[in-house]
Amino acid sequence: METRQIELSEVITDIAAGPFGSNLKVDCFVDNGFPIIDGANLKGFKVTDNITKFVTNEKARSLYRSIAKRRDVVVTISGNIGQISYIPDDSKYTEYLCSQRQFRVTFNPEEVYVPYLVFYFHTFEGQYKILSFANQTGVPALSQPLKNFRKIKINLPSYKEQEYTAHYIEAINNKIEINEKINDNLVA
What is the pTM (predicted TM-score) of this model? Predict the structure, then answer.
């Protein structure tokens, strides 16, 4: 597999942090509305739709820089650092508001097959690169997360090779998800 070493800044088209805490207080939450991603939604490769927090559409639009869309990558900044997932094409919602503890990244779709990149960041090497700029004082957090994430260097194969590799991993993960659902049904 032929690769080229890149800095992520070369393939990032947009990156933004979740809103500051004062811009997204608990009293902004509503029972239904615009979904908010939090750490519970970043347990695997894909953002999950077990959404428990919502804000009004108006509130979300006022925080437009923090809105993630399908094929965006969401990364945890503090708390359970190292979490990284992407919003799949078949997600329940087309847009999500990142919480205060995440940032979102949009990659150039002609150069990066997003599932491949997320799979990479779930490897030991990928996790090491993310966690290398962690601050371990107090609550674990990534130091200057947007700036440092942009500077991460990786060996990136061609788009076709990324897609080919990711399809195999996705097939295995889909089988695992189906088996977990079957197991959950047997237990219930």
Answer: 0.89
